[in-house]
Design goal:
The complex is a heterodimer. In chain A, 54% of the residues are buried. Chain A is built from 14 helices and twelve strands. By secondary structure, chain A is an alpha/beta fold. In chain A, the strands form two sheets. Chain A has a ten-stranded mixed β-sheet with strand order 3-4-5-2-1-6-11-8-12-7, sandwiched between helices. The termini of chain B are far apart.
Chain lengths: 489, 333
């Protein structure tokens, strides 16, 4: 027994060290890339992109399901985007509330006959409307088919060479689209690009714009602020640096339309449709031996609301884990297929070992070490020291993410913000991380049970400012649930 | 092993404390630096605005005030045109600001060189040779910034290296293209030569830019309707729509019969832009029976060229594309 415990302990320790080493490497890579990018801001302005007639036009796709309360605000926010040529397509995914009616009233929508290319299969499409006030605003009403199906419908309707998918509850900064399109303009090989998503809880929103950046009031949401910094500034940036970014957030991502159509659009049978699409793009482009890049821009900001309730957060994290597992399972063969390079041989196995199986190992460690120590198979000092290293290393990585934000973008303006973030970066490894590991483990169980629902997700809305409406839940889409969009990690 | 773990734990704790302290201290320092810079801007800005208004102001300064002055000169230079900008450029030269920024072009750091290349365009500095040399910089950001500044300086000498950079892909096509558009008609001759490039994307970019420069008849563009690559023919069709010349009007209808649907679509759209009302019957036939893209484009073109014909067609022997165009027409009216 003792030998078995020693073997398990050795595996857990090696795993923990390997995981932290990998994330340390990503932190260094991300640090270098972000500093590089940040300095680059002195050598380009979005004005150049805005005034250039060569900037490619973009179709913005906004899928909406039961968004009566917030959709007008979201569309108003999109209408304020600074970009030379764009169209906005709102796809009502069979809402059971007054989503289409409120849009009709707010934007003077009139029904039009519209011929759609059926390049991607979707549920039946109903009426198409165009706004009299904003002729570049189109609303299409269709039968409920889920978020991915709604996005596919938007792709069919899109007239421009790039499509930007955003969540109905996301708030884009005025320059966000110009910034996220910069890599596309700079390099024609870029087929997908995403931007950083930040947490809007605590911020003040007016007329679809963030007018005052603040940290959330609740501890849970503040912990997520640090978590998002770590995920986006370190994780996404690190993966982009090695050329294998596997996730472009469903809350804000731009894709080359032709590539999206070539690979078959969004997969409707998964709750992780954003990751699945990017993984499929990697796989198909590599199969076809076509040059391509998936890029990440750390500064175009999309703000979204984070759950402030443990129950909802748990549901979100379980769904993310299921989406991850579904994607990895669907594309498992890419790990052995010839020609998949670093994507198939490194990125996918990394996600399998450290993201998909991570919660199992982590939770096993949390349970095994104290039991082993209690039975005398392992010394308490040894177990404690190991915990302290694992936790201390995790803290270091979180503090490094906050430092990265602090040395570059400093979006949280006050000194107390940075003090609070630094404190939460330390604290998030003392309970919160363990809790999310447990939820992810639960997500694995749900995946094995073939659970498919999105679950409900009630949103509280952003901080009230005059003329601010509480945003409803965003994009759960799948019947019979009635809400929920969120960012993906 | 135990002692190693304990030592490692202590190291982790120390690292965390140091990094956390550094983050908080950095914010303190940044706040102080920002305040001081803001004060410097507040001191320098009224003096510079006074100078712009014609007051006799001595703008020589040092330290943080100097940095604020350089930033303001670049910012105002970006927004100004014509004589005002030329005057600001002369001031930058007199104060040695341009020379100072120019020196940064030799920095070992790519971002610093890129920032300098960018700023030289805003300052209107006499730095065309240096910026042309920067088009060969190993750092892409520097090359892009230099191209953008050469466009800002509107110097025709820069056309050839920009065209070369566009052709070999060393600069983002949109950036090089915009720079050539900024330089204006002087770029057209070099662009003509690009239409003979071996690279179809380059030929297409050249055709697109020639259309946007709108310099008039271009025999080489007319000849490009025979280009074997449809991407180029699309660009030529679009260019014809913008050029509005007699030769464009004569040649464009040929592309309505192109075997590639999106070339026909581009040609239909350009017919509307050129106001080629003699093509309405052809467009009507396309709107009734062609594939999705050209049929849709033809119907929309008809909405511009002859709305009554379109409405009439929708009531008699229409098509879904004609109905769509009629509906959109009604919305826009």
């Amino acid at each position: 027994m003792r030998t078995a415990v020693e073997v398990v302990s050795a595996v857990l320790i090696s795993y923990s060290v390997a995981l932290n080493l990998m994330f340390s490497m990503f932190t260094i890579l991300a640090w270098s890339r972000i500093r590089h990018h940040h300095h680059g801001e002195n050598s380009q302005t979005t004005d150049e992109i805005f005034r250039s007639p060569l900037t490619p036009p973009v179709s913005i796709l906004l899928p909406a399901y039961n968004e009566e309360a917030g959709v007008v605000q979201s569309v108003k926010s999109l209408l304020q985007l600074r970009y030379p040529e764009l169209e906005i397509i709102v796809i009502d995914d069979g809402s059971r509330d007054r989503t289409v009616e409120v849009l009709k009233e707010a934007f003077e929508l009139v029904p039009v006959r519209r011929v759609m290319r059926a390049e991607l299969d979707t549920a039946a499409v109903g009426q198409v409307y165009v706004s009299r006030l904003h002729p570049h605003l189109t609303v299409v009403s269709k039968e409920n088919g889920g978020k991915a199906d709604a996005l596919n419908c938007g792709v069919n309707l899109a007239r421009y060479p790039y499509v930007c998918a955003i969540d109905a509850d996301a708030i884009l900064e005025e320059q966000a689209l110009l910034r996220v399109m910069a890599p596309v303009i700079d390099d024609p090989e870029v087929v997908a690009t995403g931007g950083i998503v930040r947490i809007a809880n605590g911020c003040t929103v007016r007329n679809g714009r963030i007018i005052d950046v603040n940290l959330p009031r609740t501890r849970l949401a503040t912990l997520q602020v640090v978590e998002y910094l770590r995920a986006f500034l370190v994780g996404r940036m690190g993966w982009a640096a090695v050329g294998t970014l596997l996730i472009v957030s469903g809350a804000f991502g731009v894709f080359k339309r032709s590539v999206m159509v070539d690979v078959g659009g969004y997969e409707t049978g998964t709750v992780g449709e954003d990751m699945e699409l990017v993984v499929r793009i990697h796989r198909r482009m590599r199969e076809a031996n076509k040059p391509y890049k998936v890029s990440f821009v750390p500064d175009p900001v999309c703000w979204t609301e984070a759950p402030e309730d443990l129950r909802i957060l748990s549901r979100q994290r379980r769904r993310w884990q299921r989406g991850l597992l579904e994607t990895l399972w669907t594309h498992r063969k890419a790990m052995i297929e010839p020609g998949q390079g670093i994507f198939g041989r490194f990125a996918l196995p990394f996600f399998v070992v450290f993201e998909a199986l991570g919660p199992i190992v982590e939770v096993a460690g949390y349970i095994a070490f104290p039991i082993s120590a209690a039975n005398g198979w392992l010394s308490w000092e040894y177990a404690l020291a190991f915990y302290l290293i694992a936790v201390g290393w995790g803290m270091l990585l979180s503090v490094a993410a906050v430092a990265l934000e602090e040395l570059t973008y400093r979006r949280y303006p006050l000194r107390r913000h940075v003090v609070r973030m630094a404190v939460y970066a330390i604290v998030d490894n003392l309970g919160y991380r363990q809790l999310t590991s447990f939820w992810r483990l639960w997500g694995i169980a749900e995946f094995l049970r073939k659970e498919k629902s999105w679950g409900t997700m009630t949103r509280k809305g952003f901080d009230p400012a005059p003329a601010t409406e509480a945003l409803s839940s965003a994009a759960a889409f799948q019947e019979p649930v009635d809400a929920a969009a969120d960012v993906r990690r | 092993m135990r002692s190693f773990l304990i030592q490692a734990t202590l190291v982790m704790v120390a690292f965390n404390l140091v990094l956390t302290g550094a983050v908080i201290f950095n914010r303190f320092m940044v706040t102080v630096a920002r305040r001081r810079y803001g004060e410097a801007l507040a001191r320098v800005r009224p003096r510079l605005l006074g100078w712009i208004d014609g007051d006799d102001v001595d703008l020589r300064c040092e330290g943080l005030d100097r940095r604020a002055l350089v930033d303001l000169l670049a910012r105002y230079g970006r927004a100004m045109h014509g004589e005002s900008r030329a005057r600001l450029s002369r001031l930058s030269n007199e104060l040695g600001v341009s020379a100072e920024v120019l020196a940064d072009l030799d920095s070992p750091r790519g971002w610093r060189r890129a920032a300098a290349a960018f700023r030289l365009g805003d300052l209107g500095a006499e730095a065309v040779p240096q910026l042309m040399a920067a088009l060969r910089d190993p750092d892409r950001r520097v090359r892009n910034a230099a191209a953008r500044s050469l466009g800002r300086l509107e110097n025709p000498d820069a056309v050839e290296p920009l065209v070369v950079a566009l052709a070999n892909g060393s600069i983002a096509r949109a950036v090089a293209g915009q720079a050539l558009l900024d330089i204006g008609a002087g770029a057209a001759k070099e662009l003509d030569s690009l239409i003979l490039s071996r690279e179809p994307q380059v030929r297409a970019a050249a055709a697109e830019l020639l259309g946007r420069l709108a310099v008039g008849h271009s025999p080489i563009l007319v000849a490009a309707v025979e280009d074997p690559n449809p991407v180029v023919r699309v660009a030529v069709a679009r260019a014809f729509g913008r050029l509005g010349t007699r030769s464009a009007a004569r040649t464009l209808p040929e592309l309505l019969d192109d075997p590639v649907p999106y070339v026909r679509a581009a040609a239909a759209t350009s017919c509307a832009e050129l106001g080629l009302s003699e093509q309405t019957e052809r467009l009507l036939s396309m709107a009734r029976s062609d594939e999705h893209l050209p049929a849709s484009a033809a119907a929309r073109a008809l909405a511009v060229l002859d709305p009554d014909l379109l409405r009439g067609a929708s009531e008699t022997a229409g098509s879904e594309y004609i109905s769509e165009a009629v509906d959109l027409l009604e919305v826009r009216q």
